[in-house]
Amino acid sequence: MNERQKARQAPVKRILISQLGLSLVLGLSLLAFDQIGALSIVLGGLICLLPNAYFAWRLFAVRGARSSRDIAKAFYKGEAGKLLITMVLFALVFSMVKPLNVLALFAGFVAVQMMNWIVPLVWRGPSTGS
Prior knowledge:
Transmembrane segments: 12-33, 39-60, 80-97, 103-123
Keywords: Cell membrane, Membrane, Transmembrane, Transmembrane helix
Oligomer: single chain
Helix content: over 70%
Main location: membrane
Mean pLDDT: 87
Protein name: F0F1 ATP synthase subunit I
Organism: Pokkaliibacter plantistimulans
C-alpha cells in the first residue's frame, strides 16, 4: 500500500476507532448504574460500527481501479451490505438479548453514528496548504 492510499484511509480509520472508543466509554460509564443499559448501549454502538467497518473494507478493497464503474460498484455493494448487516444485527439483538434496554440500544447507535460527522470536523489532520 502506497502513501497516497494510506492517507485516504486514515480519516476512515480515525472514525472507526472513535466509534469503537465511544461505544466502550459509554458502556463503561453506565456500567456502575445499569448493567443492562451498559450492555445495550455497547451493542447499539457495535450495530453501527460493524457495518461501517464492512463498508470501509469494501470501498478500499478496490485498489488501482481504473474505471469509475468499478469504484461505483464497490460503493453500492458496500452500502447494500452495510444496510443488510445493520438490519441483521438489530434483528439478532432484539431476538437474542433479553433483557434489553431499547432506549440505550438506540442511544448507542445514534451516538456512534454521529461520530461520522463529528470526527471529520474536529480532527482535520495535517494541513497540506502552503
